[in-house]
Amino acid sequence: xxxxxxxxxxxxxxxxxxxxxxxxxxxxxxxxxxxxxxxxxxxxxxxxxxxxxxxxxxxxxxxxxxxxxxxxxxxxxxxxxxxxxxxxxxxxxxxxxxxxxxxxxxxxxxxxxxxxxxxxxxxxxxxxxxxxxxxxxxxxxxxxxxxxxxxxxxxxxxxxxxxxxxxxxxxxxxxxxxxxxxxxxxxxxxxxxxxxxxxxxxxxxxxxxxxxxxxxxxxxxxxxxxxxxxxxxxxxxxxxxxxxxxxxxxxxxxxxxxxxxxxxxxxxxxxxxxxxxxxxxxxxxxxxxxxxxxxxxxxxxxxxxxxxxxxxxxxxxxxxxxxxxxxxxxxxxxxxxxxxxxxxxxxxxxxxxxxxxxxxxxxxxxxxxxxxxxxxxxxxxxxxxxxxxxxxxxxxxxxxxxxxxxxxxxxxxxxxxxxxxxxxxx
Length: 426
Fold this sequence. Notes:
By secondary structure, the chain is an all-alpha fold. The protein has helices spanning 26-57, 60-71, 73-76, 78-87, 90-114, 119-147, 153-181, 185-203, 220-233, 235-264, 269-288, 290-294, 299-313, 316-319, 323-351, 357-408. It has 16 helices and no strands.
């Protein structure tokens, strides 16, 4: 994982006393480290599941079914999870999620160790773990603003993004290595990670949300609809997430095109993994550099600049075949992606009232996940029909169109009001 959060000092507002580094914020460090462990454990399990199913059944279709069950909660559970995160005690909810995930992953470890593997059990465990992870991540995102001073929120979310990218980068080799040692060990590792997270949550002292309205609860569907309504009325936020979702859709085609470029050039799976890892490092650096950028450029400039960089870099993939250069290009694009994720996340958390955090985050995540799923579905057909050159040229053109749209969009010239300035839209 990356270094402990908050290595840089934050001076706060002008004339105020300097804030202590986040590494000295006990509650934030406990949350950051515990969630980081669960992210690494979840990634190791996701890598190990297809290996396990292929070893047990020999069926690629069965392996795909388990992978689908692990990802399906991103689409099915997001919206109700967001409403329940706003309704329930977030700390208690995260503890219950860790307990449930611990039991689910430990049950798989026991089943594998004793030779009692069942496909239905694996599908159920993957779906349950994935669903609980959605709740866990939404609750953590909403809780961060209560554990750090307002002036350190950008630094905190920067560290969270870097942690997420580091877990994705390290999860594949960790999961593969553990599976090589013992087929049950990745799942035991994930169970231990959830135990660590559970202990860290029990040690945190600060509350994860502000006071809640004691009025009778409304139907869950009504509260979910409120999340959509609130988000839709924030024109800056909806325009921003629309642009990011469109780029997510396009990036699915880029990822698949890079695989074809490496394969057609005679490259191995190990080479492709190395190139992908270089890109992951670029994304982590982009996340870590977000605080520097947010102090020097407005969000609109960062978004337009990042999309323009993507549009300029993508055509180079058409002519470049040297693996080192491909890795460098992916790192540049991932740097911009990590940067946009952090500055966009800081903005979203800052303008969303605490009682709406879970629902708004779930709406935005669902839009991004849905765009990624559509991109994965359509990119294969595009590459079959247009080839790598035609597909990348089309994606570059779409990226430039998105950059132009962001440049002229009236909604991006006026940020939405922060909580307290205007809360009448709900």
